[in-house]
Amino acid sequence: MLLQLCLLYVTIWLHSVSAQSSSIAKPGCLERCGTQPVPYPFGVGPGCSMERSFEINCNTSFNPPRAFLSILGGEIMGINPTNVRVNMPNLALSTYGQGARILTVVYGLSTTRYTFSDQNWLTAIGCDDMAAVTGLANRSFSGGCVSYCQSAGDSGGVASCPNDSNGFGLGTGCCRTPIPKGTTNLFVNLTDVHRNWRNNKLFSTSYAFVGEMVTSNFSYRLNDLNNATIFLSDNWSAKNTPPVVLDWKIGQQNCDEARRNLTTYACKANSECVNFDTNIVGYLCNCSKGYQGNPYLDPGCQDSDECADNPCDPNADCTNIPGSFICKCRKSYGGDGMKGGSGCTKLPPSTIINVSIDIDYTWASGKTEISSPSDTRPFISDIV
Ligand SMILES: *[C@@H]1O[C@H](CO)[C@@H](O)[C@H](O)[C@H]1NC(C)=O
Ligand SMILES: *[C@@H]1O[C@H](CO)[C@@H](O)[C@H](O)[C@H]1NC(C)=O
Ligand SMILES: *[C@@H]1O[C@H](CO)[C@@H](O)[C@H](O)[C@H]1NC(C)=O
Ligand SMILES: *[C@@H]1O[C@H](CO)[C@@H](O)[C@H](O)[C@H]1NC(C)=O
Ligand SMILES: *[C@@H]1O[C@H](CO)[C@@H](O)[C@H](O)[C@H]1NC(C)=O
Ligand SMILES: *[C@@H]1O[C@H](CO)[C@@H](O)[C@H](O)[C@H]1NC(C)=O
Ligand SMILES: *[C@@H]1O[C@H](CO)[C@@H](O)[C@H](O)[C@H]1NC(C)=O
Ligand SMILES: *[C@@H]1O[C@H](CO)[C@@H](O)[C@H](O)[C@H]1NC(C)=O
Ligand SMILES: *[C@@H]1O[C@H](CO)[C@@H](O)[C@H](O)[C@H]1NC(C)=O
Ligand SMILES: *[C@@H]1O[C@H](CO)[C@@H](O)[C@H](O)[C@H]1NC(C)=O
């Protein structure tokens, strides 16, 4: 019996280890580039990604190596189940007297599997300037904000962006406007509007950039707006503009259409298809509840061992089953056995007799000793 328990224990352990170490990348492909994990459909080099959009150039001339999106060139700061964060420093500049300059922030997202996430904002810095953003999501859109300063000495000459959590609100010399989900092309237009408020222009230049919301303090000296060198040289935008968040998606179809062709359908066993958006084509795959792994790679998502998270009452035994788990109160306890449920409470003596009769019945029905795991605990701790 001791040996049997030992084997059971080792088998369970081996099972959980093999589930954890299942590969995130296509066989024969790198699982990470430097410190960045690279889960399929992303892949390092040709042949390792699902398609060109997800191909990563792992540049080993850095130590540790750094991951770049081959199709856009930006360095990858993170790969998430629905988006990638990419460093693509971008800065639109307008200098008073030279007219507005228009900057296309990113070219050609419409030919990629990426669109701008609604976590991105247009941030404009300057005084008396209006930043307008026009773009193309499923349909064209436009938005804008006005950055304003009362005087050159406003707030001790220090500008700060709106600091409420959603990015609206009043800043000094800084304003923000959100970018809609699904945007493929963006144009930023800075327009001087000082004549609407006063006769003189407080500072000559203004700037704008697109990136994820910076929740930490973002501030600069207003006087710097008179010296374009500060913003244009010294890699100001590389150091100060935040990463751009790009949503990724599979294909040019929604789930209903994609499922019709199993040759191209990307979601493997035990996973579900999730439409990217009601109005924008494309989809993602997600492991079904109780399963984990990479839903884009064969053999699909694997059963996760929920018991490892101790979901049951301390007086219950946990049994992992495909996609779920069962909590069973030990001898002389009653209840649903769940932590956060009714748990297991000690039963009055008369009930205990009834339960022990149940257990006797189980033994009599020919099940092995192992089916009563409450007995195995002390043995296992003895062995270990
Ligand atoms: C790696 O980065 C270095 C330095 O930026 C650059 O010169 C080189 O071309 C890059 N190599 C590849 C394969 O992209
Ligand atoms: C935003 O800034 C103002 C002025 O500096 C300050 O009073 C307020 O507490 C700040 N709010 C947050 C959420 O940080
Ligand atoms: C930018 O602003 C100028 C001046 O207001 C306007 O003529 C131009 O059409 C705008 N461009 C875009 C792309 O919004
Ligand atoms: C933000 O800046 C204000 C004023 O400079 C400062 O009092 C506050 O501590 C800063 N908050 C954070 C999170 O850095
Ligand atoms: C502009 O900023 C640069 C970099 O900080 C500095 O070297 C230069 O002297 C400044 N120019 C003026 C006119 O203040
Ligand atoms: C700015 O970046 C360039 C390359 O992007 C680099 O060669 C240069 O050293 C950087 N300058 C500073 C001051 O960091
Ligand atoms: C499924 O997709 C493949 C690859 O694009 C294509 O060759 C095949 O004709 C499609 N099958 C159907 C039934 O549409
Ligand atoms: C835009 O939305 C329409 C209707 O909602 C849809 O038919 C069309 O496929 C969408 N276009 C793209 C590029 O997602
Ligand atoms: C995938 O499933 C998890 C848990 O069920 C959920 O939190 C997540 O939002 C889902 N992801 C997508 C893209 O639907
Ligand atoms: C225990 O068993 C006795 C006799 O079989 C029965 O009368 C009693 O109701 C049972 N108690 C419970 C809690 O089931």
UniProtKB/TrEMBL annotation:
Primary location group: membrane
A Gene Ontology term for the protein's cellular component: membrane
Topological type in the membrane: Single-pass membrane protein
Alphabetized PROSITE patterns for the sequence: ASX_HYDROXYL, EGF_3, EGF_CA
Gene Ontology molecular function terms on file: calcium ion binding; polysaccharide binding
Subcellular location: Membrane
Domain of life: Eukaryota
Domain EGF-like: 303-339
PANTHER family: OSJNBA0016N04.9 PROTEIN
Protein name: EGF-like domain-containing protein
Origin species: Salvia splendens
